[in-house]
Amino acid sequence: MTETPTPDVDAVVVGAGFAGLYQLHLLRQQGFTTRVFETGAGVGGTWYWNRYPGARCDVESIYYSYSFSPELDQEWTWSERYAAQPEILRYLQHVAERFDLEKDITFSTRVTAAVWDDAARFWQVTTDGGETVTARFVVMASGVLSKAKAPEVPGLDSFSGRVLHTSAWPHEGVDLSGLRVAVIGTGSSGIQAIPRIAEEAGSLTVFQRTPSYAMPAWNRPMEPDEVAQIKSGLVEQRAAQRYTVAGMINTSPEHAALDLDPEEVEATFQRAWDAGGLGSMLSTFTDVAVNPAANELVSDFVRRKIAEIVDDPETAEALTPRAHGLGTKRPCLDTGFYAAFNRPNVDLVDLARHPLESITPAGIRTADGEREFDVIVLATGFDAVTGSLLAVDFQGRDGLRLSEAWSEAPYSLLGLAVAGFPNLFTITGPLSPGILTNIVTTIEHDVEWVTETMLHLREHGIETIEATEQAQREWAEHVTMLSGYTLYPTANSWYLGANVPGKPRVFLAYVAGLASYRRHVEEVVADGYRGFTLGERALSSATA
Ligand code: NA7
Fold first, then answer.
1. By the number of CB atoms within 10 A of the CB, which of 170, 285, 432, 466 ranks highest?
2. CA nearest 430: which of 451, 453, 452, 446?
3. Pick from 365, 353, 367, 291: which is nearest to 326 by CA?
4. What is the Cα–Cα distance from 11 to 23, expressed in whole angstroms?
5. Is the whole model's pTM more than 0.85, yes or no?
6. Is there an atom of ligand 1 within 6 Å of 533 CB?
7. Rounded to an integer, what distance in angstroms lies between the CA atom of residue 430 and that of residue 421?
8. What is the atom index within ligand 1 of the atom nearest the CA of 190?
9. How far is CA 471 from the centre of its chain?
10. Residue 366: enclosing H or E segment and its boundaries?
11. C-alpha distances in angstroms, 447 versus 27, 249, 524?
12. Which atom of ligand 1 is closest in space to residue 498's alpha carbon?
C-alpha cells in the first residue's frame, strides 16, 4: 500500500447527543484523535432541541440511559419513571463533564459537506463556520429524529402570529397563558405537549390528520427503596439489556391471543394497561404484532379505553384509530392526552373530515372554514433516519452523492455503512434495529462496533473499510423480507418514510430485534468483516 498524507484527525464525529458523546469518549480512550461538530450551542442532541412542554422519554429512564459505566450508573439517580427533557439534558451535561468531553466539541457549527479523497484516503469535511478538516473516518451521530418536518400546507410564512415547532422550542420558554393556540399533529410530541398546553392556553385547537394509539404512562416519582434495589442489580441488568429484543427487559409473551378464551385475553390486556408503558399492550401475546385478527383484539381494547376516557362521543370517535392497527405506527405514551379533550378550552379538528387547506395571516383554513389563532405549534414530526444524513452533502468515491446512492432506497449494510462511501459510519442508520428499540442501547452497540472496527484497522495497518454493493443489497432484501412478516408495512408511518412526500417507501428498520442483530454483526466480524472490503477499493457490483 502506498504512503498517503496524514489527515488532521483520525475521526470527525457529527453530533453531540447520546451517540456522539459516547463515540468521542471511546475513540479518545483508544488514542484516536477526534473532533466533534455540533449544531447546538451545547450537548444533548435531541434533548437539547426538543424543549416543548411535556417533553420526556417514553422508554423508562432506567433503560433510557448509558449502560457502559457502572460508576455513572451508581452516581446518577433518576427522579421519575420517565424523566422529563430537562433532567435528561442535565444527565448528558453531567456525562460530558464527567468524561471531560466538551474540549473536543465545536458547538454552534454544522457540518455541511464531506468529500472523499480517494488518493489520500480520507474525508475532507467542511463546516458552516468555513472550517475544513481532514479525517480518516467520519461518524454520523446526527440522530434519527433530528431533521424537522413542516406540514406541507401553503401559507405558513403568511401567518401573523407565532409559529413554533416542537423540535425547536425556544430555550427561554413560551408564555401561552390566555392565548389562542393551535397544535398540528398528534404523534408522540403532540400527545405529550397537548395536555400541558391545554392547562396554560386560553383555548387550544388540535388539528389531527391520523389518530394515534396512546398507552398510559403512569409516570411517577422513583421511590428511594426502589432506586436502591435497582442500583444493586444494575450491573446484571445492563449486561442483559444488551441482548434483548428492544434494549430493555420485558417479559416475553408465551401464548397467542387467538388460542385463549376471550375473558383471559381481556384480563391480560387490562393488566398490561394497568402496568402502562409503550410496549405493554404489544407484549401481551405472541401474535398481536403479526396476526391481523389478534392485532384487532388489542387495537379494539385500546379503542374502548379511549371511549371510556373521552366524554364527548363524537370527539372520542374522532380520536379513535380505525384505519391502522396498534403498533403498526409508533405507539405513544399518554399522560393526560385523551383526558385533555374533556376540558372546555380544548377542541379537536378532524382533518380526515375537514382537510387542511392553508395557513392564513389570521390562522388556519380547513375545508369547513377558517379559525383564528395567536400561536401555531407544529408537532409534525421529522424526516426520520435519513434526513440528518442527507443534510450533509456527502460525495463518496468518484463523486457519488449520497442523495444519488439513495435515490431509490436508503441502502446500508447493517445500518452502519454505505457502499461507495469508504470510512463513513452511520450510528443507527437506515436498516438498523435502532428506531424499534430503546435507541440508547442500540447506539451503544453501534458506537462500540465503530470503535472496535477502527482498532482492528489500525492494528492491521488498514486504511479503509467499505460496504460492498452486493452485501448491502442482500441486507436490504433481508430487512424488507423480515418486515414483510409483520404488520408494520400496513400503515403510513415514518418507519416507512410515508410522512415525507416523495421519500422512497422503504421500511427503515431491522425488525428481528437488537439481540439477533448483535449476533449477526458479531458473525460478520468473526468472518473477517464479511460484506466489507478492507484496505482497497471495493469492487462495484458490475465487477464483483
Ligand atoms: P410523528 O410521530 O411523525 O407525528 C407527527 C404528527 O404530525 C402526526 O400526527 C402526523 O399525522 C402529523 N402531520 C404531519 N404532517 C402533517 C400535515 N401536513 N398535516 C397535518 N398533520 C400532519 O412526530 P412526533 O414528533 O410526534 O414524534 C416523532 C418520534 O419522536 C416519535 O415517534 C417517538 O419516537 C419520538 P400523520 O400520522 O402523518 O397523518
1. 432
2. 446
3. 291
4. 10
5. yes
6. no
7. 15
8. 26
9. 25
10. strand 363-366
11. 9, 21, 16
12. 38
pLDDT of residue 543: 35
Note the pLDDT tens digit of each residue in 237-247: 999 999 999 99
Euclidean distance between CA atoms 40 and 48, whole angstroms: 7
Scan for cell 401475546, then name that residue: 285
Q: Which helix (H) or strand (E) holds 191?
A: helix 188-200
Look up residue 64 and give its amino acid. Y
DSSP H or E stretch at residue 426: strand 424-426
Residue given cell 468518484 in the structure block? 398
Q: Which of 51, 329, 380, 493 to mutate to test the pocket of ligand 1 (most atoms within 8 A of CB)?
A: 380
State the pLDDT at residue 2.
57
| Residue 367 CB contacts under 8 Å (≥ 6 apart), including other chains | 353, 354, 355, 357
Number of residues that make up the chain: 544
Q: Does residue 153 line the site of ligand 1, with CB under 6 A? A: yes
Ligand 1, atom nearest to 186 Cα: 9
Q: Give the position, in ligand 1's atom list, of the atom nearest the Cα of 188.
A: 26
Distances (CA, A) of 222 to 69, 76, 80, 227, 229: 21, 13, 5, 7, 11
- Close Cβ partners of 136 (under 8 Å, ≥ 6 residues apart): 7, 9, 10, 11, 121, 122, 123, 423, 463
Q: How far is the CA of 183 from the centre of ligand 1 (A)?
A: 11
Which residue type occupies 108? S
**Ligand 1 atom with the shortest distance to the CA of 210:** 39
**Alpha carbon nearest to ligand 1 atom 4, residue:** 187
User: How close is the Cα of 341 to the center of ligand 1, in Å?
Assistant: 19
The C-alpha atoms of residue 177 and residue 180 are separated, in whole angstroms, by: 9
Q: Whose CA is nearest to atom 3 of ligand 1?
A: 381
Residue 189 CB–ligand 1 contact under 6 Å: yes
pLDDT tens digit string along 403-462?
999 999 999 999 999 999 999 999 999 999 999 999 999 999 999 999 999 999 999 999
Which residues touch 27 (CB under 8 Å, ≥6 apart)? 10, 11, 13, 34, 451, 454
Query: Which bin fits 247, alpha (ψ -120 to 50), beta or left (φ > 0)?
Result: left
pLDDT at 542 (0 to 100): 36
142: CB partners within 8 A, 6+ apart = 14, 15, 388, 389, 391, 392
What are the helix (H) ranges across 220-261? 224-232, 234-241
How deeply is 505 buried, as exposed, middle or buried, from its count of CB atoms within 10 A (0-12, 13-18, 19+)? Answer: exposed
Ranges under pLDDT 50 in the chain: 537-544
Q: Residue 269 C-alpha to ligand 1 middle, in angstroms?
A: 26
β-strand partners of 210: none
Q: Confirm if 222 and 81 have CB atoms less than 8 A apart.
A: yes
What grid cell was written down for 164?
A: 413554533
- What 452-461 contacts at long range (C-beta under 8 Å, 24+ apart), as own/partner pairs, is 452/525, 453/425, 453/525, 453/529, 454/10, 454/11, 454/27, 454/30, 454/32, 454/137, 455/30, 456/525, 456/529, 457/534, 457/535, 460/534, 460/535, 461/1
Residue with cell 388489542: 298
